[in-house]
Amino acid sequence: MPRSPVGRETDRIDGRLKVTGAAEYSGDYRAPRLAHAHLVTSTIARGKVTGFDTAAAFASPGVLRVHTAPDNPLRLYETTGQAAAFAENYIPLKSEAVHFHGQAIAMVVAETPEQARDAAALVTATYDVQQPRTSVTDEPRVPAGPAISGAPSSLTVLAPGVETIDAALAASDVVVEAEFRQNVQHHAAMEPHAVLADWEGDDRVTVHAGAQIPAAYALGMAQRLGIPAPNVRLITKHVGGGFGARVVLWSDAPLAAAAARELGRPVRLVLTREQMFTLTGHRSHLTQSVRLGASRDGVLNAVSHRSVAERPTTMSFTMTPAHSMSDALYRTPNLHVDAQLAVLDIPGSRAMRGPNEAPGGFALETAMDELAIATGVDPVELRLRNYATTSPSTNLPWSSKHLDECYRVGAERFGWSGRSATPRSRVDGQWLYGTGMATAIYPAARREGFAVEVQLRDDDTAVVSTGASDLGTGGRTVVAISGADALGIPMKRITPKIGDTYLPPGAPAVGSSNTHATVPLVVDAARNVIAELKRVAVTENGSPWQGADASDLRYERGILHGLGRSMTFGRLLAAVGSPGITMRSSPMGAPIPGYVHHSFGAHFCEVRVNRFTGEARVTRFTTVADVGRVINAKAARSQLVGGVIFGIGHALLEENHLELATGRLANSTLADYLVPVHADIPDIDIHMLDRPDPLLTGPLGDGSEDVGTQSLGARGLGEIGTVGSAAAVGNAVHNATGIRVHDTPITPDKLFEHL
Ligand code: MOS
User: Fold this and answer.
1) Domain 396-444+598-752 class?
2) Alpha-carbon torsion, ordered 275, 279, 283, 287, to 10 deg
């Protein structure tokens, strides 16, 4: 009798393929007569290309085409409607206009990747240069759109009789005010963006590319190429990291596909690592201002959080990158959040892991640490004193919230009680050491309009299909686990099929929502296919139950029982001559109304700071997360570890310097843009509470069905590790040194001069 795999430590089913190099990523696919493209990018941020010299490139070995705007025959068009929200708002290689430094201005197609690259290096351009707008302090500004949770970008809640947030702050016993500046950060996914486009005729194309929202990506491609949406088949089987960089349809895939159509051969385009820094998005640079007003014992009276981030001119839709935890995290009678965007001539930016909450979390949770010091209240106790049981912006309760338990369990695991609250009070040789903590919160949005199919086969295996992509998170394994649980059969009898837009439309791998969007669909499709199995059993020739009533049958663990007989589904299907039966999930409604949905967590961190060099090193880290039902304990832990590493990078290492005069992202290589390596990361202690959230994802039906439902109640965990973890590091740096750094990353130079 199979135990349900839900909640166990399950190896990812594609793990062996990946570590042996057998998994095919987008750049690994081949096609007969494959040609290779390479992009040439702009060296100005705003203006026009006035001319190209392409003679040397044309004369270079193996070159088939050199495409330059505006005189090239590539057929590319505008995106509209929903697809426009997931694409840039200019048509690549269509006009002479340059919108940002590092934009594609020409493309070489050649017989080999090396020939294309070498010829691309020979293309030169002349420009008519204009002064770019590059700083978030620049005008004009526009209000940001709503946050991913649906929360508005500007919101004021005031207690009765209070006129303004400033008045609420002025009336508070203790006020903490802080300004934060953060430079551009990058996703730095391991797999470079790569695309292979292969046409049948000139109106049907198969595209291999990494995409987080395959359906939107394919729709955008169809619009860009001017062909019907069903004529684009997007295959995205294995992806080496998304983090938001594969949400948008950037310029690379449309250009490769258009070049392939024009050439009449398949074309592959792989971006260089340097090109990824300007062509595939980044986290906005921003300024934030947080003001907290509280009583002498630390009870909040007012929270104000304002920010200014980027609105690149090429993006019609961007994130609201700051306050989206300040409008939800703490109980406060007076609340003001406001997000503005500065319209800038810089590379396109959109989402990056915890797009609103990671920057906002650093600011809010740093300010909370300052409030703890100002009031003399322990940081954990301060957060418990301001614990919200309803959302401060909507007054709705949470569907499930155990953040208080995260604080208590985390403090216990970490050994928080032994802490010295006095900054710079612990020294070990040349190292000052200290501890800090912070809170994590991330919205759990369930999106609708997606589907899963479950097929029962006559060999007693089942296929679970959905067009979602697995970014490396373990999504494919989640599909197999929930399928095995729903059907009550071992995982080895489940074949998950994902990553292809010719499958049923899969839930997006964004906003930490893929698991809780997909699992209920798997359960529902399994329930439907079990009902269909019973229908087949009572109607088809060859079935021992032909003519019986379906309600006499019971499905359990892959076997149909009833009227004194039992048969596996495979035997029954074979007996009636059916190779397999397939059913799709029913449309899934919104979650039960009247609740807000978030995941939560508490981070605890120890750092050591070298007294002589100012180098900060994270030496211990504990995260306790409240993420609903845990489907795969192993992959879930990996997601949280990865998120925390993102936060450590944010706190200590990561920034790209945007040169204000030129609009150039100055350190756009992995040699100059520092990300954490193994030696920077200690063993990270992760604990998940494993408390299901059925108000978000189920229960389905009336509970009398024969389908397994243990995988319901999950909530997102891809981004929660990233939120607040940078603040925990910064707060620990302060505890170690007495130095408060508001402008990340906390590099040695910022500490050195004060040590
Ligand atoms: Mo995410 S930043 O929704 O990929």
Assistant:
1) alpha beta
2) 100
Could you read off the pLDDT of 623-636 as tens digits, one per residue?
999 999 999 999 99
Ligand 1 center from residue 242 Cα (angstroms): 8
DSSP-derived 3-state class of residue 507: coil
Q: Tell me: the pLDDT tens digits for 490-542?
A: 999 999 999 999 999 999 999 999 999 999 999 999 999 999 999 999 999 99
User: Which pair of structure tokens corresponds to residue 205?
Assistant: 């194309």
Instruction: Indicate if ligand 1 lies below 6 Å from the C-beta of 707.
Output: no
Residue 316 CB contacts under 8 Å (≥ 6 apart), including other chains? 84, 85, 89
- SS3 of residue 673 by DSSP: coil
- How far apart CA 198 and CA 233 sit, in angstroms, is 10
Contact partners, residue 752, CB within 8 Å, separation at least 6? 613, 614
Ligand 1 close to Cβ of residue 271 (< 6 A)? no
Domains 396-444+598-752 and 447-584 share a fold: yes
The atom of ligand 1 lying closest to the CA of 512 is 3
Burial degree of 579 (CB within 10 A; 0-12, 13-18, 19+): exposed
- Residue found by looking up tokens 């209920």 in the block: 520
Distance CA 311, CA 345 (A): 9
Q: How far apart are CA 442 and CA 627, in angstroms?
A: 10
- Give me ligand 1 centre to Cα 268, in Å: 26
Amino acid type, 679? A
DSSP state of 132: P
Which architecture, in CATH terms, is 447-584? 2-Layer Sandwich (3.30)
pLDDT bin (cut points 50, 70, 90) of residue 704 is low
Burial class (CB in 10 A: 0-12, 13-18, 19+), 208: buried
Q: Is the CB of 353 under 6 A from ligand 1?
A: yes
- Burial of 594 per CB tally in 10 Å (0-12, 13-18, 19+): exposed
pLDDT of 1: 46
Which residue ranges make up each domain of the chain? Answer: 396-444+598-752, 447-584
In 3D space, the residue among 87, 49, 47 whose CA is nearest the CA of residue 68 turns out to be: 49
Work out whether the CA dihedral 440, 445, 446, 447 comes out positive or negative: negative
DSSP 303: E
Give the model confidence (pLDDT) of 722-737 as tens digits. 999 999 999 999 999 9
Q: Does 508 contact ligand 1 (Cβ within 6 A)?
A: no
What is the rounded CA–CA span in Å between residue 122 and residue 119? 5
> Residue 210 pLDDT > 50, yes or no?
yes
Per-residue pLDDT for 469 more than 60? yes
Listed residue (511, 421, 752, 440) closest to 615, CA to CA: 752
